[in-house]
Amino acid sequence: MSNNAKRRMAHKKPLGKISAPLVHDEREEFGKRLYQALLDADMSQSDLAREVFNETKEDPRTGYEIVIGRDRISQYVKGRQFPEPRTFKKICEVLGKRAEELAPAMVGSTIERENPSFEIKMVGDRIDAVLLRINKIVPLALATKIGEMIDAAEKKK
User: Higher model confidence: residue 103 or residue 76?
Assistant: First the structure.
């Protein structure tokens, strides 16, 4: 990270507590964690944008390289926006972080808000089969056991 980038990031004002819906608080928390991850990785917002979006162009007036997506990274750090899932995944990969590390509340609450945690539906006229949906964060060992049970049931058919 350049000295100039470090100086800009060192003078970044901390985000104040805003009394707003939980979603804003989740974005704000993500922004703080993303900012810390950038510091830990010794990366600037431009560095991250360069890796995530992999696109630059030259400013015709100045000749300087413009990193596409740097403004979006800035919005994420400020807690104003949350990235699209594909972008979020790429940010996690570049920074070497798991989704739960950067946005634990967002990961869990998004699953809970958008999908029921457990659902069983009848499939057409079949009385011997149902559609089972489980949208819940569970330990890896439990998820593996559930997968094994489903595989075993499939083999019995």
Answer: 76
